[in-house]
Amino acid sequence: MTTLHAGDFLLRPFKATDAPAFAAAVRESMNTVGQWMSWAHAAFNEQDALAWFAACDAGRAAGSSHEFGIFGHDGRTFIGGAGLNQFNGTHAFCNLGYWVREAAQRQGAALAATRLLAQHAFTTLQQSRVEIVVADGNTASLNVARKAGAAYECLARNRLRLHGLPVDAHVFALLPDDVTAHPQPGEGSVRTNPSAPPQPHSCAAPASAPPAAA
């Protein structure tokens, strides 16, 4: 099992025992996460969370996505979710997404997760480019992408669908040199299960969020 560490935060795959905290975090965050994530709804429950965990496990096994929970350094305090998905096997790039529960926002969790996942994408998954696509108006997620050192490339028209409607989205990108040229204090360790088989890098999967998708 891959575990990523940075300072006060730890990223690891979800466990069934995380379901109550995950569901509570979604319901607590409707005014923030719910505005930008179509999958989040006020009645989100433990079964919804378990269905997402199963999808994460299947995606990891297929190599089509690598989704993680964001936790405190103890590995138990649930903070949010982040992941790598939508892999382009021909050109070796993928999407990076993140969300943080309302009670834990503005504490650096999304930024730490973004930097850890970008490093993981380049060093372990051998990607050449990582994209961060943010709906127009989502200021908090835009700030995370900028602070992570991602280069702003464009405002793409109708790039995302949000609550059933097409919306414009800002496209940012990280390259390997963006991560290695500017190391951040406290960043750095990736632990994997040495007995686990290597993961293939292929296409597809929704953003870092339960299917129905800083």
- Would you tell me the overall average pLDDT? 87
Which CATH first-tier class would you pick? Alpha Beta
What order do the SSEs take from the amino end to the carboxyl end, as H and E?
EEHHHEEEHEHEEHE
Spatial strand sequence of the major β-sheet: 7-8-6-5-4-3-2-1-9
For the record, the CATH architecture stands as 3-Layer(aba) Sandwich
Number of strand elements: 9
User: In percent terms, what proportion of residues is strand?
Assistant: 25-35%
Described by the principal axes of the CA atoms, the overall outline is globular
What fraction, in percent, of the residue positions are helical?
25-40%
First-to-last CA distance = 24 Å
**Main sheet record:** 9 strands, mixed
Low-confidence stretches: 185-207
CATH superfamily: Gcn5-related N-acetyltransferase (GNAT)
How many domain modules? 1
What's the number of helices? 6
Query: Structural class of the secondary elements?
Result: alpha+beta
User: Compute the gyration radius: what is it?
Assistant: 16 Å
- The CATH topology corresponds to Aminopeptidase
Primary descriptors:
214 residues, alpha+beta, Aminopeptidase, 9-stranded mixed beta sheet, 6 helices, 32% strand
Describe the protein's architecture and organization.
This protein is an alpha+beta fold and 214 residues long. It has one domain (3-189): Gcn5-related N-acetyltransferase (GNAT) (Aminopeptidase, 3-Layer(aba) Sandwich), CATH 3.40.630.30. Helices cover 28% and strands 32% of the residues. It has helices at 19-28, 33-36, 46-62, 109-123, 139-147, 176-180; strands at 3-6, 9-12, 66-72, 78-88, 93-100, 129-135, 151-162, 165-174, 187-191. Strands 7-8-6-5-4-3-2-1-9 form a 9-stranded mixed sheet, sandwiched between helices. Helix 1 crosses helix 3. The protein starts with a strand and ends in a 23-residue tail after the last strand. Mean pLDDT is 87; it is low at 185-207.
